[in-house]
Design brief:
heterodimer, A: alpha/beta, Rossmann fold, 3 domains, five-stranded parallel sheet, 20 strands, disordered N terminus, B: mainly alpha, Cytochrome Bc1 Complex, Chain D, domain 2, 7 helices
Chain lengths: 651, 126
């Protein structure tokens, strides 16, 4: 906005003053004329400061400027205090002020701007990066248009309990917009787009307000339960010189919050039930936020000699541990403790989708009298509209709180609750579980052997040929988009927290590719080797992230699970056709019309190659797989991304 | 129409061959080829995979290659199942096609023993 045409009350002053006036309340002249004489007014607790006084009299002086420093430079000062390493984002005019300050004033370090080709990619890169490193990133989007592109990735982060800092540029002041595309589609309240699936949002109206809100949003996002947060950032606020409104500007210091813990009395009751149980079972989903969570869970499981069912949205428990067991043990339990479960009802009930009315068959897995315990931070953060829950499950002892933070007190309480008379029985229970674990692994290996030489390549072979080439590295499986029958978690040794990063959260297809690139970025800096099992449908949502990986030299081995279809939907339509006694119309494809990705087949290796990746394929003969992946691993170790396109069995 | 579809699927079927699989030279051999086409055309592969190896994600880990069920029991299950698998009634899948599919399943090769596959011996070990 040109300074020489700016009114005395410019838009920044207007916004700030409007906020104060709104808080004070307004009285119209008519109301004033008929009002009764007011009683003597008592002094307020706090006298108005100069800025408030000026706003109330309507004749403020122009606040001091800090040497004409652009507002967005000060914003970069704020951002730099929070140790944010990257900003993966698609450029947009509505945040041009901040963009320019990041790369010039901020020298494009801490954070470094990474060019993305879709806003969904930017958010999902932040998502994957956090799960690999435990450190949040920020992304910036064009207010209305870019935020709508980003929305599904925000929802994934929300459902997956991952902090992402999102800033949306927006030109709020319609009276002073530069005409044309950059400002045409601004919004009154852009945050509304994602409000139902973010933890918090704000629209700062001054530089100091930005500083407080940015630190506040970082604090809220990184306090369990984690979640994405949103800030609408006015274009004018970025562009105009910083004003201090008579008070020195400052940047609040960030101190992390202690996570919420389960109530101590409830913890003791849970411990009493677990210690006295004959067959306790531990079920976990997003329990281990950090590597320490894995260690704590091992300690609790060994203390109780209780089998652990890891539902897999994080690497919670080593699958090599003899107490790692499949969900079938749930039916044998007399006490179950679920920690950070997405769906408790689905954990303890069976559902069979066996008719066309959608109700299916429901069967409880529980023995009569089984006691249920829950520790979950999700109970502290549930919204009404965009939902992230399933059927309601009654729980005997329910503790809203962070499970990992509650585990130390639970472990202590269980130690106190186990009487000497129980110790032999608990040890014997462990021996039984150990035998079942060994037998289960033999069965899994034999299942993997079936169709070992088949073409298309079996998913078991796909995973084991990949593992053979990376097993001596400090590998991290950053994503398995699509479904490969969970072979990775059944056959690969998952012993460290970073070995497995879980899934999307919101089941939004298109997460796998960008989240893998984001996780690989984090792993690159930590010296780890990143591998993803990349499905075909997922990659095609926003394949431009392949270019981002090549451009910014992010090493990632992507082994494709190319089953040439949206396979979940393939089966759904077939199922409905059968229920309705109709032959599924498959046209000239393999699956029902609308579900196949073939005719023509997509040459993913060429797609990746065109964007700077080393790539080979399509691999249809399983004998070719090992040597090709070996080549690709060498490329990735040199610092480049590589993709192997493998035509696979469906699941 | 059905024959047109089977012809159109021929290229797909050729590309889904089981490496090293020579269909058994038995009374089933001729029908097994048609059975493979029907297995693909009617979507059996979707949950059971092309080699009928199954998946924990889609068929509860059940392997139907070389199923031990007798033909009559197999057909009865397919017609009347009210579990996770949807029933295939005669209007959707004819009796002769079901016979052919059974022949195809019986023609599939015996799986290797896991202990004979070096890569699987390294499973879940660092």
């Amino acid at each position: 906005m040109p300074k020489e045409t700016a009114p005395k009350f410019n838009r920044r002053n207007f916004l700030a003053a409007a906020a104060v006036a709104g808080a004070a309340g307004a009285v119209s002249p008519a109301e004033a004329a008929t009002a009764l004489p007011e009683p003597q007014r008592l002094p307020s607790a706090l006298p108005p400061n100069a800025h408030v006084a000026a706003a109330e009299t309507g004749a403020p002086e122009m606040p001091a400027q800090e040497n004409g420093k652009p507002g967005s430079d000060f914003m970069v000062d704020v951002i730099k205090t929070l140790d944010i390493k990257y900003v993966p984002a698609n450029p947009a005019s509505s945040y041009r002020g901040l963009h320019e300050s990041l790369i010039n004033y901020g020298k494009n370090t801490m954070p470094e701007f990474l060019t993305c080709m879709h806003e969904e990619s930017g958010v999902a890169m932040c998502h994957g990066y956090f799960k690999a490193t435990g450190k949040p990133l920020m992304t910036v989007v064009h207010g209305v248009v870019g935020l709508q592109h980003a929305a599904m990735a925000v929802y994934n982060a929300w459902c997956d309990r991952v902090p992402v800092l999102i800033v949306g540029g927006n030109d709020l002041d319609a009276a002073h917009r530069a005409p044309g595309v950059p400002t045409f589609h601004s919004g009154q309240d852009i945050n509304a787009i994602v409000r139902d699936f973010t933890k918090w949002d704000d629209t700062p109206v001054s530089a100091q307000h930005f500083a407080q809100s940015f630190v506040r949003m970082y604090k809220i996002a990184t306090t369990p339960p984690y979640g994405p947060v949103m800030m609408a950032l006015d274009g004018g606020l970025q562009m105009e010189p910083v004003r201090d409104f008579g008070e020195p500007l400052y940047i609040p210091k960030f101190f992390p919050s202690a996570p919420p813990q389960g109530d101590l009395a409830a913890v003791r009751e849970a411990a009493r039930l677990l210690a006295g149980a004959e067959r306790p079972v531990i079920v976990v989903d997003r329990m281990a936020r950090t590597p320490n969570g894995v260690d704590l869970l091992v300690e609790l499981a060994e203390l109780l000699q209780a089998p652990v069912v890891d539902q897999g949205n994080r690497m919670n428990f080593p699958n090599t541990h003899y107490l790692s067991r499949p969900p079938t043990v749930i039916g044998q339990a007399d006490v179950i403790i679920g920690m950070e479960l997405s769906d408790y009802w689905g954990t303890v009930n069976g559902f069979v989708d066996n008719d066309n009315n959608g109700f299916g068959q429901n069967v409880s897995k529980l023995k009569p009298g089984t006691k249920l315990i829950s520790i979950s931070s999700v109970d502290l953060l549930t919204k009404s509209n965009y939902q992230d829950f399933q059927r309601f499950q009654s729980i005997d002892v329910s503790m809203p709180g962070d499970a990992e933070a509650t585990l130390p007190s639970l472990i202590d309480a269980v130690k106190s609750a186990i009487g000497n008379d129980r110790k032999d029985a608990i040890a014997k229970r462990g021996d039984t579980v150990r035998q079942a674990h060994a037998k289960g692994l033999d069965g899994i290996k034999q299942a993997a052997a079936i169709a070992w030489d088949a073409s298309p390549v079996s998913t078991a072979r796909l995973l084991m040929e990949t593992y053979a080439q990376i097993k001596d590295l400090d590998w991290s499986l950053v994503s398995t988009s699509g479904n490969t029958s969970n072979w990775a978690n059944r056959l690969w040794p998952m012993e460290k927290h970073h070995r497995w990063l879980g899934a999307s959260g919101g089941y939004g297809i298109g997460y796998g590719a960008p989240a893998s690139v984001g996780a690989a970025l984090g792993n690159r800096d930590l010296g780890r080797f990143s591998v993803s099992i990349q499905s075909d449908g997922d990659l095609m949502f926003a394949p431009g992230v392949l270019w981002t990986a090549a451009r910014h030299k992010i090493p990632l081995l992507a082994v494709m699970h190319n089953n040439r279809g949206y396979h979940q939907e393939v089966m759904h339509v077939q199922r409905l056709s059968n229920f309705r006694n109709r032959v599924a119309n498959i046209g000239n494809d393999l699956g029902p019309i609308g579900t196949s990705i073939m005719n023509p087949d997509i040459e993913y290796h060429k797609l990746a190659e065109s964007m700077g990746w080393w790539a080979k394929g399509p691999i249809t003969d399983p004998a070719d797989l090992g040597p090709t992946i070996k080549e690709a691993v060498a490329v990735v170790k040199s610092g480049q991304p590589a993709l192997v396109n493998v035509v696979t069995q469906p699941r | 129409m059905r024959f047109v579809r089977i012809a159109a699927l021929s290229a797909v079927i050729a590309s889904t061959a089981i490496a090293g699989d020579a269909f058994q030279t038995s009374a089933w051999a001729a029908d097994a080829v048609k059975g493979k086409a029907a297995f693909i055309q009617h979507g059996c592969w979707q949950c059971h995979d092309f080699a009928a190896e199954g998946s924990i994600a889609t068929s509860n880990g059940r392997v139907i290659a070389r199923t031990a069920l007798p033909l009559d029991a197999f057909k009865s299950f397919v017609r009347t199942t009210d579990g996770a698998m949807p029933p295939y009634r005669p209007a959707v899948l004819r009796d002769d096609e079901l016979d052919d599919i059974y022949a195809y399943l019986q023609s599939l090769p015996q799986p290797k023993a896991a202990s004979d596959i070096p890569l699987l011996n390294g499973a879940r070990s660092q």
